[in-house]
Design brief:
With 397 residues, the chain is α/β, with parallel strands linked by helices. The protein has 2 domains: 8-173 and 328-396, Alpha/Beta hydrolase fold, catalytic domain (Rossmann fold, 3-Layer(aba) Sandwich); 180-310, no CATH class. Helix content is 36%, strand content 14%. The chain contains 17 helices and 10 strands. The strands form 2 sheets. Strands 1-2-4-3-5-6-9-10 form an 8-stranded mixed beta sheet, sandwiched between helices. Strand 1 (34-41) and strand 2 form a beta hairpin. The longest helix has 14 residues, at 114-127. The protein is globular, with a radius of gyration of 20 Å.
């Protein structure tokens, strides 16, 4: 399969009618990208964006992170379809236009644990009439999910591309005091004494949704500031270049940017509010113009954030972590790759994870690329470069 050139049309969205029968507004999708629902999918009515022919030999799944949507893959969908792939990007459990889940901060979040989410994707693959996926590509929390797809079901998910969030492997079994989750939990427990709190543990509390569902600056400005501070556009991510800080303890975590380790009790909207970009910065933000940010603003204003926050309750929950210990020592043995921005602290927020991914967790790592001029939203900030790297990876399979 040859690489299709990445044209300018892949990097722009246009108002293309979509059919939903739901009364929801149309999404501003590139030509050739379709919006539809797939059901049943492990109890869900799953909204997906897709491109390319469903009869194509190779299926590629694109998994978004937080606070994102299938729409985050708007640039990749048509380009991968032009290269001959059938490409599907779902609104994952808890997000967007997918329905059938319970977004309740006090309910058992078990159906947002990683094995359950892998099962969601297996059910989606079956509902699409397929038995395997040529490659699963994930960004942010979707990167962890893609990694677990490759680890738990390598017979279905034949290759894994992770973006922005490295995977250091499952937690150890038996539990060790110095394994990754144990060290991180101990470090997080020491943060309140320093007047700080870790964003993942904050996201695991009911107050996170209360803060973010009704941010004092309004949803548009909150999301604009949130996307800005985690991008290469925020100058502090340039002046304080992300790097491995060498330790996992409270004092070291407290040196991470304030969008990862927040001032205690402040909440995310207030933490990022002072970093709201100027009108001039907003006007020059080509990777997320206001008409595209409006998609996120509209969807999260409608649904709230708790559906996605359920994932964090599982990420930090002792029961869910101990369940994952069953797979301690297992590796990702299908071909794998990693892409991240050079201004992205997510790569190094857990010391040693980036190296562990390359040295131990993935036994067939074909590519590991750091993209200049990109922060955390790498596939949106530098879509042309990411598409070229992704197509190169897919060809190597």
């Amino acid at each position: 399969m040859t690489t299709a050139p990445i044209s300018e049309t892949h990097l722009r969205t246009s108002r293309t009618p979509t059919t939903s029968r739901t009364g929801l507004p149309d999404l501003p999708l590139p030509a050739g990208v379709r919006s539809r629902f797939v059901a049943p999918v492990n109890g869900l009515r799953m909204h997906v964006l897709e491109a390319g022919s469903p009869g194509a030999d190779r299926l590629v799944l694109l998994l978004h992170g937080f606070p994102e949507l299938a729409f985050s893959w708007r640039h990749a969908l048509p380009a991968l379809a032009d290269a001959g792939y059938y490409v599907v990007a779902p609104d994952l459990r808890g997000y967007g236009r997918t329905t059938g889940f319970r977004a309740d901060a006090y309910a058992d979040p078990i159906n947002c644990s990683l094995p359950w989410l892998v099962n969601d994707l297996g059910a989606l693959v079956a509902a699409l009439g397929r038995s395997e996926v040529h490659a699963v590509v994930g960004h942010d929390f979707g990167s962890f999910l893609a990694a677990w797809c490759g680890l738990l079901r390598p017979d279905v998910f034949r290759a894994v591309m992770m973006m922005s969030a490295p995977f250091a492997g499952p937690p150890a079994w038996p539990a060790l005091a110095d394994d990754g989750p144990s060290r991180l939990s101990a470090a997080v427990a020491g943060l309140p004494a320093l007047g700080r709190e870790h964003y993942q543990w904050y996201y695991s509390t009911p107050r996170a949704a209360r803060d973010m569902d009704s941010p004092p600056q309004g949803m548009h400005d909150f999301l604009r500031a949130y996307f800005h501070v985690k991008s290469a556009d925020w100058q502090a991510n340039q002046s304080n270049r992300p790097h491995d800080m060498g330790r996992t303890d409270a004092e070291t975590l407290a040196r991470l940017p304030h969008y990862y380790v927040l001032p205690l009790g402040v909440g995310m909207p207030a933490a990022v509010g002072p970093e709201m970009p100027t009108p001039k910065e907003v006007a020059s933000c080509e990777w997320l113009p206001d008409e595209e940010l409006a998609v996120y603003t509209g969807e999260f204003s409608r649904t709230g954030f708790q559906g996605g926050l359920q994932w964090y309750r599982c990420l930090t929950g002792e029961r869910e972590i101990d369940t994952l210990r069953l797979f301690g020592g297992r590796t990702i043995d299908v071909p794998s790759g990693f892409i991240a921005g050079d201004s992205d602290w997510a790569v190094h927020q857990v010391s040693g994870a980036f190296a562990a991914m390359q040295q131990r967790a993935c036994t067939q790592m074909l590519a590991c690329d750091v993209v200049p001029g990109a922060g955390h939203w790498v596939q949106q900030e530098q879509p042309r470069v990411v598409l070229e790297l992704l197509l190169r990876f897919l060809e190597r399979l």
